[in-house]
Design a protein that fits this description.
By secondary structure, the protein is of the alpha+beta class. Helices cover about 20% and strands about 30% of the residues. The longest helix is centred in the N-terminal third of the chain and has 11 residues, at about 5-15.
């Protein structure tokens, strides 16, 4: 069986359309058909790796080096930063190319797997400990203020300081509220007219909690 035949068989096993695979690869559908029909000779291992990630299969299986496609965990890399979940802390802006990377299995990230806009942060504090304990990992998706809904958990920058809190909007006020067992943490309330110094860095779409 050729590489193309394995690609096509695996795509059909997963009931994925050619258009879906093409979109995930950043290619057009004609290119995917060429992969499946073996029209592209000497396909690079990088290309095979990207296809394998979309098809959730070991690249070695597509290459014909392995008979089984199971027992393989697909991972994606994301930039990771530190953030405070307690009193906001100032930290220096880090360019994306300077950020450290973390690999997280796609089956943990779910529908957000491989999203190049997602970044990861490790929390440091107790102000969100009812849902996000200290040192948890959070996956953050960039959004605008207008896209947020009450009770969303967000990462924000206000007056040069960053924090993660629950978001609420009440009339002309924006409220960032802790979710903590420690009652010393209090709301940050900002008048909507004073939001020039407020930047929403993103919405927390997933958190990874270590319970013990």
């Amino acid at each position: 069986m050729t590489i193309g035949e394995r690609i096509k068989r695996r795509r059909k096993e997963l009931k994925l359309s050619v258009d879906y695979v093409a979109k995930k690869l950043g290619k057009n559908r004609a290119t995917v058909y060429r992969y499946e029909s073996d029209e592209i000779e000497d396909m690079s291992i990088n290309v095979v790796g990207e296809i394998a990630k979309v098809l959730k299969v070991d690249p070695g299986y597509l290459m014909g080096w392995k008979e089984t496609k199971d027992n393989f965990t697909i991972k994606s890399d994301y930039p990771i930063y530190a953030i405070s979940a307690g009193v906001p802390i100032a930290f220096e802006a880090i360019a994306e190319y300077d950020a450290e990377k973390i690999s997280i299995p796609d089956n943990i990230m779910g529908k957000h797997a491989g999203n190049k806009n997602i970044f990861i942060m490790r929390t440091n504090g107790e102000s969100m400990n009812r849902v996000i304990p200290d040192q948890s990992l959070i996956a953050v998706k960039p959004v605008e203020l207008s896209q947020l809904k009450n009770n969303d958990i967000v990462v924000y920058n206000y007056d040069g300081e960053y924090a993660v809190k629950r978001f609420y909007r009440q009339e002309n006020k924006v409220i960032f509220r802790p979710d903590s067992n420690d009652m010393t943490f209090t709301d940050l309330v900002i008048d909507i007219n004073d939001c020039l110094d407020l930047k929403i860095k993103g919405k927390v779409v997933l958190y990874i909690v270590e319970l013990d």
